[in-house]
Design a protein that fits this description.
By secondary structure, the chain is α+β, with helices and mostly antiparallel strands. The chain has 8 helices and 8 strands.
Length: 295
């Protein structure tokens, strides 16, 4: 094969490629138009969804994630259509198969990270708590400082900063002490067996009812609970406006001081525990009796 023959074959091949390219130009132009339209559409759709999520007061992190996912999905839809126009369906199928295998492998490798991420999205959308609220979860009691997609940060009342993976918060029991704006204070105490129980009850209720922190729309409750070793025990319950933990602690402290003050003013005794010591071998002998016997 001489050089002239090679040149003719090369020219023929280039001519075929040129003809094919010219014949594909309308499809290429249409595919590019589809990609551009869907790219613009992805931005518009993401913007519209973001405005809708803002109206629902969705967390900023969740909005950013949802906006990004919507943009990617819309753009991928346009890319699939463009490849179909160019008759590259087989290449697209191979690409999707490879992406699926890679995604499966990554899913197994980062399943904990993915679980925390998805849980963070759920927390951001459902919003069982907000920054600044007092929560109790995973044996941690404190104020929420940050809510991120992977983990949430809670500062305990003694100043420790605890980072809790969102998966654990999503799966475990969560108590929000701030979402109602109210909290019940429970106090227990005891009085002497010699006291008039009805008088004790009315005295305690009158003193607690005068506390400025008490929520008047909530019931003030008093219950005798049982016979103790040296006292008859009772509990008193009342509700307060609750924003932060010092509100609860101060109300409880004021109630304790108030009950003790009215007990002193009305000569109501809070008895000390009494124990009887038996010094006899068979029992029933007091210390004075043992000293008299010289034992």
């Amino acid at each position: 094969m001489n050089i002239q023959t090679l040149a003719q074959q090369l020219t023929h091949t280039l001519q075929k490629w040129s003809d094919a390219l010219i014949s594909m130009l309308p499809n290429v132009a249409l595919a590019l138009l589809v990609v551009v339209v869907f790219w613009i559409g992805s931005k518009v759709t993401a913007s519209v969804s973001d405005r809708g999520l803002k109206r629902l007061h969705t967390h900023r992190s969740a909005r950013e994630l949802i906006r990004a996912v919507i943009r990617i999905l819309v753009f991928l839809a346009g890319l699939v259509i463009a490849l179909s126009i160019l008759k590259l369906d087989r290449a697209l199928a191979s690409l999707l198969a490879g992406a699926g295998i890679i995604g499966l492998a990554l899913g197994f490798a980062f399943q904990d990270l993915a679980a925390n991420f998805i849980s963070g999205v759920g927390l951001s959308i459902n919003r069982p708590f907000r920054v600044g609220e007092i929560v109790e979860t995973n044996d941690v009691f404190g104020v929420v400082k940050h809510v991120r997609l992977r983990a949430s940060v809670v500062e305990t009342l003694d100043g420790r900063v605890v980072t809790i993976p969102n998966k654990q918060i999503f799966q475990e029991k969560l108590i929000n002490h701030s979402n109602r704006g109210e909290r019940r204070v429970d106090l227990t105490c005891g009085v002497s067996y010699a006291e008039d129980l009805e008088r004790v009850r009315s005295t305690v209720l009158k003193s607690i009812d005068a506390l400025p922190q008490r929520v008047r729309s909530k019931p003030l409750e008093f219950f005798y609970e049982g016979f103790g070793d040296s006292s008859i025990n009772f509990s008193v319950r009342f509700w307060i406006s609750y924003v932060k933990e010092p509100d609860y602690l101060l109300a409880k402290s004021d109630a304790i001081m108030c009950i003790r003050r009215v007990f002193l003013e009305n000569d109501i005794a809070i008895p000390f525990p009494i124990r009887t010591l038996d010094f006899g071998m068979k029992g029933g002998n007091t210390l004075s009796e043992m000293l008299e016997k010289g034992e």
